[in-house]
Amino acid sequence: MIMEMMMLVLMVMMMVVLVKITTIMIIGVLIIDVMMMMMMMMMMMMMMMMMMMMMMMMMMR
């Protein structure tokens, strides 16, 4: 009986560890995705600013 209980506890512990690892992995992936999106947005903004500057230069002429 005691052995069975110990086995159950071990199983639960393993499950918890696995869940924690998976959650950490998912969170890490999400953070990476967000960072990539932010970088893309920044690049787009920079491109837009460059375009606007070019347009302004053309207008000045």
Structure description:
- By secondary structure, this protein is mostly helical.
- Helices cover 97% and strands 0% of the residues.
- The protein contains one helix and no strands.
- It has one helix at 2-60.
- The radius of gyration is 26 Å and the shape is rod-shaped.
- It starts with a helix and ends with a helix.
- The model has no long low-confidence stretch (mean pLDDT 90).
Rg from Cα: 26 Å
> What is the subunit arrangement here?
single chain
DSSP helix fraction: over 70%
The geometry reads as rod-shaped
Strand content: under 5%
Secondary structure tally: strands: 0
Low-confidence stretches: none
Outline of the structure:
The chain is built from one helix and no strands. The protein has one helix at 2-60.
Question: Which properties best describe this structure?
Answer:
mainly alpha, 61 residues, 97% helix, rod-shaped, 1 helix
Secondary structure elements and pairings:
Blueprint: H1 2-60
